[in-house]
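wait is this the right file?? whatever heres the structure
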């Protein structure tokens, strides 16, 4: 991703699904105007989901996903189908591609029912319409197109744009908490995992959101915070810190100045803050032998004192005083079966879109596994979770008194 590119998590995810040789890849190429996907008459040419970030008019920044055929066979085929189904968990708009000459199969109908059950806006596209003697009237939620001649491809784009309308009430990262002339102090340790000369993505996005609110961002390292607060001349509207230095920042921030973390702000932005705040209480009930999953939404080069694989497990063991087993996932990997887990500790999920993060929390809730995130877990272990949630009184009111 380039420095000025729209992050993947902020793009509308459009997934193309269907049987092998329904023309998914050809349609993807027609919609994008690029040779994005390999096209062949050989069944099963697309073996893994193909992702492409691009600008798609009239919609804007999108993530196009071309998936393997959902009727693939054999053990390898089953894995491909499973990967294709996993794409549904991050799909904002689903396009079911059907060979118009063959019509809808039971597998296609089952997939459409799956879209409905997951509340995914969707459209059935009957491709290869140029091969029909005559094109019949489409049914509800259906459209005839031809990726070969381009018939109705422009109309398809317009329809997808209508289906993908974003919720205007979606919470911002921090911009709705500040106003013009306010300033926010951001405490940013220099993260060794970030590329040299750059801040990590949550910090970049938070600064941008503050500026869009016509407020000012003051960025400091953790050892400079106390002096900066003394010399600013007036109180900041908010202090936001990296979770790893929560304790020091809390000690250096006056009690009458609101304090929270990037991880907590992003949990609210993704719509899961209430769930992960409640999940932090499970840290108090861990027992010897319990298994804890640390899930990260991206992959990165592991440093010697990596937050997910080293620091958090150490802090949780010390806090619980128990012998615990830690397992780890990263990127798009997240287990469907959570049996045997006592707790899930998720990252701030800046690289995952809202639908995927909500899906992961729902999986945990459905299987009665508590889930928290890095920021809420660290704040709870350091006794400052309630303080870090004071700017969200409705969330604070839902917490048990002992959290």
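ok assuming it is, sequence goes like this
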């Amino acid at each position: 991703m380039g420095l000025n590119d729209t992050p993947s998590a902020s793009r509308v995810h459009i997934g193309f699904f269907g049987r092998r040789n329904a023309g998914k890849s050809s349609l993807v190429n027609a919609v994008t105007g690029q040779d994005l996907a390999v096209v062949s008459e050989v069944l099963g040419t697309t073996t893994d989901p193909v992702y492409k970030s691009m600008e798609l008019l009239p919609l804007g920044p999108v993530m196009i996903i071309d998936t393997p055929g959902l009727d693939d066979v054999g053990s390898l085929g089953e894995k491909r189908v499973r990967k294709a189904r996993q794409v549904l968990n991050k799909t904002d708009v689903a396009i079911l591609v059907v060979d118009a000459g063959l019509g809808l199969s039971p597998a296609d109908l089952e997939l459409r029912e799956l879209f409905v059950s997951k509340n995914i806006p969707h459209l059935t596209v009957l491709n290869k319409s140029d091969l029909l003697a005559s094109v019949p009237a489409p049914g509800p939620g259906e459209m005839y197109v031809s990726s070969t001649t381009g018939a109705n491809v422009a109309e398809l784009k317009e329809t997808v744009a209508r289906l993908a309308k974003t919720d205007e009430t979606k919470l911002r990262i921090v911009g709705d908490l500040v106003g013009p002339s306010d300033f926010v102090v951001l405490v940013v340790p220099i993260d060794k995992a970030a590329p040299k000369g750059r801040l990590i993505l949550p910090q970049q996005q938070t600064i941008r959101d503050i500026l869009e609110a016509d407020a000012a961002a003051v960025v400091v390292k953790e050892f400079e915070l106390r002096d900066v607060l003394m010399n600013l001349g007036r109180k900041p509207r908010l202090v936001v810190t990296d979770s790893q230095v929560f304790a020091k920042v809390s000690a250096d921030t006056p009690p009458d100045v609101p304090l929270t973390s990037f991880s907590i702000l992003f949990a609210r932005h993704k719509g899961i803050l209430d769930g992960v705040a409640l999940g932090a209480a499970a840290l108090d009930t861990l027992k010897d032998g319990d298994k804890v999953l640390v899930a990260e939404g991206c992959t990165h080069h592991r440093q010697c004192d990596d937050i997910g694989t080293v620091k958090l497990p150490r802090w949780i063991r010390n806090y619980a005083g128990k012998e615990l087993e830690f397992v780890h996932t990263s990127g798009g990997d997240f287990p469907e079966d959570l049996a045997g887990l006592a707790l899930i500790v998720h990252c701030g999920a800046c690289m995952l879109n809202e639908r995927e993060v909500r899906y992961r929390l729902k999986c945990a809730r459905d299987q009665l596994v508590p889930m928290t995130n890095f920021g809420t877990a660290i704040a709870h272990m350091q006794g400052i979770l309630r303080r870090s949630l004071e700017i969200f009184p409705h969330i604070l009111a839902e917490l048990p008194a002992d959290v």
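The radius of gyration is 24 Å. so i think its the right one actually
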